[in-house]
């Protein structure tokens, strides 16, 4: 089955260690070989600027990561094609895989809409407003202050609306989430789970999930062990529990997957790398119809792609 994965940190891993080869490195959870062999149809690649990068260097580092995306991910991968629209995805041929560039946190743009527009022109098709802490746009979920969107943050969301770009609320403060829900035309949570099942602050509570569904947004169920359960080692079946829960809230047509592969050090038992998506597919087919599974894996995110 085709797979649309809404979040990974391959680019960040290669930026940290330029010797890593995307083709088949054992240091990566996602490799080109695994994508080709395991049914990938669309993979999102995030630009994540770590906190230790000085503020004045963050935009330049974002450009470095975009160069990695094009030179070290796309160029040596014959079946990997950059996609920026829904038509681009639908036009992919057999074995071709769409690659989407995303931004995880607006730290790179400081308080400049020109920098944001530049990243969009270079191919960014989804923008997470924060990582876990504060920037010029909003507070992240771990910022004690818990503030919402700044005036500049509201300008950013309006620009994303004008450009038909996903506004990603994963990592955003609770107040920021609700501010985005008032403004964003294309909201998603690329890699977040249900807080009721696992009370990690990065997860979404029932009211947030229901609001995303009402706004016709998307939720990418993630494989991060700490977001799946609190008490024991996370296993593949814990992913199903979050899927069941979101479906029970009315989200059957609003959920997909955002693995967060290569953004995590610990992995869920049974989902240690991209090739293990096969195990997830087989597990899903035990509980859901083939039509539903196809929606979860690919069609829901495709149908909600805003361009």
TrEMBL record:
Gene3D superfamilies: Metal-dependent hydrolases (3.20.20.140)
Taxonomic superkingdom: Bacteria
Pfam families: Peptidase_M19 (PF01244)
An example molecular function term from Gene Ontology annotations: metallodipeptidase activity
Any Gene Ontology biological process: proteolysis
Protein's name according to its UniProt entry: Dipeptidase
């Amino acid at each position: 089955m085709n797979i649309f994965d809404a979040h990974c940190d391959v680019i960040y891993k290669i930026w940290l260690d330029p010797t890593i080869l995307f083709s088949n490195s054992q240091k990566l959870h996602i490799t080109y070989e695994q994508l080709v062999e395991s049914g990938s149809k669309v993979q999102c690649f995030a630009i994540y600027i770590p906190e230790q990068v000085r503020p004045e260097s963050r935009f330049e580092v974002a450009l470095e990561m975009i160069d990695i995306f094009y030179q070290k991910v796309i160029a040596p991968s014959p079946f990997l094609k950059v996609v920026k629209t829904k038509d681009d995805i639908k036009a992919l041929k057999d074995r071709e895989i769409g690659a989407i560039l995303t931004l995880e946190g607006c730290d790179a743009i400081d308080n400049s809409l020109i920098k944001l527009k530049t990243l969009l022109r270079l191919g960014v098709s989804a923008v997470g407003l924060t990582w876990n802490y504060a920037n010029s746009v909003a507070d992240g979920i771990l910022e004690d202050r818990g503030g919402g969107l700044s005036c500049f943050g509201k300008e950013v969301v309006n620009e994303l609306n004008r450009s038909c770009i996903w506004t990603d609320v994963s990592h955003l403060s609770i107040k920021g989430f609700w501010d985005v829900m008032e403004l964003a035309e294309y909201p998603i949570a690329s890699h977040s789970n249900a807080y009721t099942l696992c009370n990690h602050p990065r997860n979404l509570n029932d009211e947030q999930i229901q609001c995303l569904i009402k706004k016709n947004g998307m939720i990418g169920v993630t494989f991060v062990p700490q977001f799946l359960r609190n008490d024991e080692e996370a296993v593949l079946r814990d992913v199903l529990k979050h899927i069941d829960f979101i479906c029970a809230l009315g989200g059957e047509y609003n959920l997909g997957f955002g693995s967060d592969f290569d953004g995590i050090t610990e992995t869920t038992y049974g989902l240690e790398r991209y090739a293990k998506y096969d195990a997830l597919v087989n597990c899903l087919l035990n509980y859901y119809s083939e039509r539903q599974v196809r929606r979860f894996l690919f069609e829901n995110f495709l149908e909600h792609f805003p361009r």
